Amino acid sequence: MGRGESASAAQQTTDVRLDKWLWAARFFKSRSLASEAVAGGHVHVEGSRAKAARPVRIGEQIVVTTGRFERTVIVRALSDVRRGAPEAALLYEETAESRDKREKLAAELKAEKLAFQPGAGRPGKRDRRALQRLRGR
Question: C-alpha distances in angstroms, 59 versus 30, 49, 74, 98?
């Protein structure tokens, strides 16, 4: 498929591996990272763990966990070619419940980060001796 062809040609693909689809949909930066996530149990298709070579079908529900975030998406189109983010977003539809949960967690993490007050830095000689007395050394 050449550069000038549209994404609709890529969407005509019948069988696409799960790891390749996750990479094309831009959930992971590389296919190897997508394969590792699938093998590590961070990707569930229709509620059960899947293998990287499993073919993806339109209409299936996929749960992708990356870090502390979990996304539940429904496959809308198939592609084994990685394109720009606007085109990749057309490959899936995130459920409203998943989006709300993810945004809530992001807000909590941001508030947690803002609430953290770093200390004055490394302890000085006097502080270090006070810590040693406290620890009983």
Answer: 24, 17, 6, 16
